[in-house]
Design brief:
This protein has about 250 residues and is mainly alpha-helical. It folds into two domains: about 90 residues; about 160 residues, Lysozyme, CATH 1.10.530.10. The protein is about 75% helix and about 5% strand. The protein has nine helices and five strands. Strands 3-4-5 form a three-stranded antiparallel β-sheet. Helix 3 packs parallel to helix 6. The longest helix has about 70 residues. The protein starts with a helix and ends with a helix.
Amino acid sequence: MRTRRISRHFGIILRKNHLWFSELLGVGLVVVIISILLVQGTMVLINYTQMKKNGRLISESKAGYITKSHQLQELKNRQKIAAVLNSFTRNRLSKDVLWNLVDLVYTNSKSFGYDPFLVLAVIHVESLFNPRAKGQYRDGRYSGAFGLMQLKLGTAKEVGAPLGITITKKEDLFNPEINIPLGLAYLTKQISYFKSLKLGISAYNQGPGVILNTIKNKTPLSIRYYNKVLTSYFKLKRINTESLLKSSQDKK
């Protein structure tokens, strides 16, 4: 009789209680669905975590690639300037002097916003690339200007203070790492004051007082120094252009 009842109701006896097959299937289905959802949720979480990790790695790779590309381009720029300067000086500069000059000119040109070849042109006219150069007047007397960009001690102290560069003695101006940024700071000051590249470069050599008097008295401006700088500048640019054309032809 008990067996028939079980068969008729499609149930089973468990500790004297009935658990119907339909209920068992429902519970099983719920368990399966929950298990699937848990597995899917875990996979989504794992995938999301992996995606974040991959995204970070991709970003780091892109940043690293951009940094390396930038560094490679800067190296090429320096090599280009070094090749031009080497040709300009006819290989008269030692490798150490050459590369030290190139690095300083390139770095400071970027900081002050100059064409590196213009900076090299000024240095060439001022000192012939000699960091130990001492300025002289035409009569042979020393002018009190020193180093690559021929700065006087008072001028160097004046432009060095805003840059946080302290100058205590004239020998400091024989250091290219001090002389070049101070020289460009002084050149920038003159160009900004006169709002003219021509007048600024002329004032760098003659002094701002002379240029102001020239303008005030409407007398002819001496452009001898300015022309010398431009001559050196255009020669450097021509060498660079010829080098680029040769490199382009070689690739073909």
